[in-house]
């Protein structure tokens, strides 16, 4: 599913590199190495496809600008939490890759690299992850006590507000750090999010997490994820002032809601949430938990269809100014 999301924006990234990457500026200000980071890269292989696409597009851009004889070398920084299985990632690196590979373990909510060390930042399906669950959700006496749910999608306003505030704190820290690490003129491509003006409960991601919540039915566990709208992201970016918004749009990466999508959604959720859920409940429940998705296929498809046309992937391109 993440691959479908990345494929859906490949052409958009190619366009962005053609239109927005100021090769001359980057070339003259820096060096002969073009540095790319994938933040929240996981264990592959999606990251390899994305990094290949970006290096291909940058090479084409250098050629078209008359810098073919001075093609830079590429370095890719693969970032994820230190607990990520970097061994699997590095053992499966494509042998013919056009870049030098470097691991950067640590949270992207903090600094990862020295000042001005990146020309291009890519992050796919990772920015929705919060640094923690807002504390008030676990307090029985708080208006934000999230009884019987694992997510804010269909929760009272106080719950959603606590998530919104946590997201704003985390992403402010994220933007501050990237503003230091990106060179002036460097680009950053981020996704996903939700459309403007629809309640969280009506979004595709909201529906999926509600569905998971109905399978879990617990009071003390919440998923530390939040999907922001273009409006929310714009507000955070205006406060930061180090980036111009070059592109921001909602895309719909999946062609149809059918049995394949149910399987893909279950795998998508399992890939992203298995670690957090098994840490809280133990690994024994995982197979059983994700099984209902397929057992309730009809119900799940009709939920997906009812929310489907909205699009669920926010594609953002920022330039360091
Ligand atoms: C759903 S996966 C997406 C993986 C990959 N980008 C893709 O599109 O297939 C989200 C990844 O983000 C990572 N992640 C979440 N929060 C992070 C953080 N604060 N710093 C670095 N990585 C993080 C997770 O560990 C996980 O590997």
Automatic annotation (TrEMBL):
What the entry lists under Pfam families is as follows:
Methyltransf_7
> Would I find Transferase among this entry's keywords?
yes
Q: Which PANTHER family match?
A: S-ADENOSYL-L-METHIONINE:CARBOXYL METHYLTRANSFERASE FAMILY PROTEIN
Protein source organism: Quercus rubra
Keywords, alphabetical: Magnesium, Metal-binding, Methyltransferase, Transferase
GO biological process assignments: methylation
Molecular function (GO) terms for this protein are: metal ion binding; methyltransferase activity
- What InterPro entries has UniProt attached to this entry? MeTrfase_7 (IPR005299), MeTrfase_capping (IPR042086), SAM-dependent_MTases_sf (IPR029063)
So which domain of life are we looking at?
Answer: Eukaryota
Q: What is this protein called?
A: S-adenosylmethionine-dependent methyltransferase
